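BUG: 3D viewer hangs when loading the predicted structure for this chain

Environment: internal workstation, default settings.
Expected: structure renders.
Actual: progress bar stalls at 90%.

Input used:
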Amino acid sequence: GRVEEDGTLLCAYHAWRFDGAGKCVSIPQADSQEKLCASPRACVKSFPTRYDDGLLWVWPEGGADGLLASLLKEPQRMPELVIQDQPEDEREYNVVPFPWGLRDLPYGWEAFMENVTDPAHVPVSHHNITGNRYTQAVPVTMPVHRALNDLEGFEIGEFSFKPPCLMRIGLSDRGSENQTYLALFNVPTTPGHSRLIGCNVMVSPRSSKGGSTGFGMFTLPMPKWALHILGSLFLHQDLVLLHHQEKILAREDKKWLNACYMPTIADRATINFRRWLERNGEVDVYGKYAVPWKSISGSSSTLPAREHDPERLFDVYNAHVKHCTHCQGALRNFKWLRLTSIAAAVAFGLRAVLTIEISTTVPTAISAAVPTAASASTSLLARALSFLSSIVPSSPLTCFSLSLFFTLVTVGIHKFISLFYVYKFHHQDNN
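Structure tokens produced before the viewer hung:
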């Protein structure tokens, strides 16, 4: 369906309308709408919602009990973003949240959370983006700031897990005055798939004049669509590893902690996450602790087959662009820009060719005293050339150069447009 200007939800099939409480307010096919809309059978289930920090939060239980439960429980918000609830002149810190990004991932919630609790993989998997595999793969310290707790998760090193969906990662030195954090919410969608909602948050004292170093290029000023599309450069670096590893480990005839060799301090946060999952998850069809899919939807928790087609595995359009109005608008604009560049390349090319080949014939044709069918068509050509002469250079060499320039621009735009559809990554090519 779709939300209409009056705030009602319009069904895309029969145009029935519903208000925020799920009550039917319009049945356009009915003669007596008031009576039919009042029927409980015309209503739909509604869920408590709230809007905080630029996100829509949903409590997945309807009815009066669901509403009461939602009022008694605060969502696991990013602590630094809660500062924005205070009046601006009363805040001790400046908080700069970057735009939220959304991405559907071809691996599950468990694999994602394991990945983002692992500092050792960052300089290796994300070589040339946020680290160097040769110089930064070194021992790390992981002090325990908050011990594992079923309700509150844990905070180890710069990794703070707030069950069930929030991972907050500090990206600056803990003692630094200015801090940058990565807020990562991950929501399980289907077995073997999840949805990432994340952003950078920069925090500094009001008295500070400096700024945090940020998260590489992802904290540079740029349009929302650019931040979203360039996110593939980072996310796709370990996407293929996580997608396949999840399926391989699921079929290991061992508990996760026995199947994986975790000998270093860098593994401490990942081990704590798996311990939390053993306490709070349910045993799936593979004998591993995981999201309790059966109790959620009654469906099987069987993982999908491994995907070997890179066009599908590294799909950007279906994973993000089709859900994002910013990226859809940018894609339309780049397609128009590509078409304009093609037209310019063709126009300058034709101008160069026509200038060389018929520049001596046109004056003769247009000076004929008796108009004929041939001279009429030549006259049209002459007018076209006259128009081109008024807006473009007449030198063939200059026109050929401009045609080549716009051809190269077209190729560049075309390659950039491809990032909105598929971005393939291969570690063997990342030197």
